[in-house]
Amino acid sequence: MASKFWASSAANALKISCSGTKISAFPALSRCFSSVLDGLKYTKSHEWVKHEGSVATVGITDHAQGHLGEVVFVELPEKGVAVTQGKGFGAVESVKATSDINCPISGEVIDVNTKLTETPGLINSSPYEDGWMIKVKPSSPSDLDSLLDSSSYTKHCEEEDAAH
Amino acid sequence: MNLNNAKKAVLPIMNLVRMQGVPILDQLHLEERLLRCDLKNWCIVNVGTPQPTIVMGISGKPSELINIKSVIHNQVPVIRRFTGGGTVIVDKETIFVTLICNREAVPLLQLYPQPIMSWTGMLYQDVLRDFGKFSLRENDYVFDNLKFGGNAQSITKNKWIHHTSFLWDYDARNMNCLKHPQRTPKYRSDRSHIEFLCRMKDIIPSKSIFIEKTLNSLQKHFVLQSIKLDDISNAPYAPSSRLLTRQELEHELLSTGA
Fold first, then answer.
1. How far apart are the first and last CA of chain B?
2. Residue B257, C-beta contacts closer than 8 angstroms, at least 6 positions apart
């Protein structure tokens, strides 16, 4: 059963960091720049995972937070819960919508970012660092093999945005 | 095959369920089950819920959103639903319209809140163009700057739900159950509930006209297939939408002094 981390909404401005994922030659008219970090793996549903030894840290990407808008509430699982690759493990609320977050890797939740309780906007301002969501002890490290690297994920975002 | 039939042949199917007076909690449970356990597209229309009921979004805090003492005294049910968004009080004069769609249902639609909200705005623009100056304004459906419909969504990996409570009519006394929320759209301009809402019955000739025009507009995008409520399979699913207990409300009142 997910424990609900109620978040009082702080007015966190969206901070978009630029790192060259340029959608258009006309920045003033283009969609937001989204940053994609090397060294992480990504899903097509816009989650990232950082695998360091026996711990995998999970969050949502800059592309996702930019499209979601200001996050005002985050629902995360409790420690000890099993998560499955491709299945939902929590949700974020933004702009009158809850959006599922899907786990990039199977395993056991060993840590949860409790800072998101009071400051859910960390997901907007720092999606790859302070806005991390859960840490997982992977049960099947080969799960990572099916994920996208940074250049494949960048291409995926560009294609997705161009199609809409 | 004529052109109309050819067009229909490529439109996705949407199951249509029409209900009258089904309690809003039952409706929410049905919606959550269809979103999570079913692959098809659905439109649910429910005309009224039997008794005035407060429905909060997933992150709603009673102390911030409702006048708890009055709500307990008047025994008004309070529900926390599975979708995002704000707090409404609904009753037998509320018309509920829900759309549940899979990823491919609306071509080129990104499964994020704003694109979905914009698409529904276009749908209802088509429905309401003859009746007043309709617009989607900061995620509310308004005539001019008066709100008549509250929206909320939930988005999964491959499906989305967008449901609306339309204020055909309402009892102004019921609005006293709701506090002025901390987070409001700019266009509300600090107006009270009564000052910033309007009644659809003052603008549209009848409920049936609104509903039929909505279904006509949907038929430009889907082939509607009527389904009886009793014929929907009851897949086992534990919904998250629930009624808050009196004990929970009293505890919130005591702990916050709200």
1. 65
2. none
The residue type of B145 is N
User: How many Å lie between the alpha carbon of A108 and the closest alpha carbon of chain B?
Assistant: 21
User: Is A91 close to B58, i.e. CB distance below 8 A?
Assistant: yes
Taking CB atoms and an 8 Å limit, are A97 and B152 in contact across chains?
yes
Q: Dihedral sign, CA of A145, A125, B155, A117?
A: positive
CA distance A104 to A109: 12
At position A36, the amino acid (one-letter code) is V
Rounded to whole angstroms, how far apart are CA atoms B239 and B152?
A: 17
Q: pLDDT for A12-58, tens place per residue?
A: 333 333 333 333 333 333 344 689 999 999 999 999 999 998 999 99
Look at B154 and A45 and tell me if their CB atoms are within 8 Å.
no
Band (pLDDT 50/70/90 cuts) for residue B239 is very high
Cα(B138)–Cα(A94) distance, rounded to whole angstroms? 13
Q: Give B109's contacts in chain A (Cβ within 8 Å).
A: 164
Q: Which range in A31-35, B145-149, B179-183, B233-237 is most confidently predicted, on average pLDDT?
A: B145-149
Query: Under an 8 A CB cutoff, do B57 and A93 touch?
Result: yes
- b or e along B27-44 (b: 16 or more beta carbons within 10 Å of the residue's beta carbon)? bbbbbbbbbbebebbbbb
**Taking each helix axis from N to C terminus, what angle separates B113-128 and B207-218, rounded to the nearest 10 degrees?**
120
Radius of gyration over every alpha carbon of chain A, rounded to an integer in angstroms: 15
Angstrom CA distances, B5 to B9, B40, B119, B154, stand at 6, 22, 24, 33
Give the DSSP H/E element, type plus range, for residue B119.
Answer: helix B113-128
Main-chain phi, psi angles of A120, to 5 degrees: -65, -20
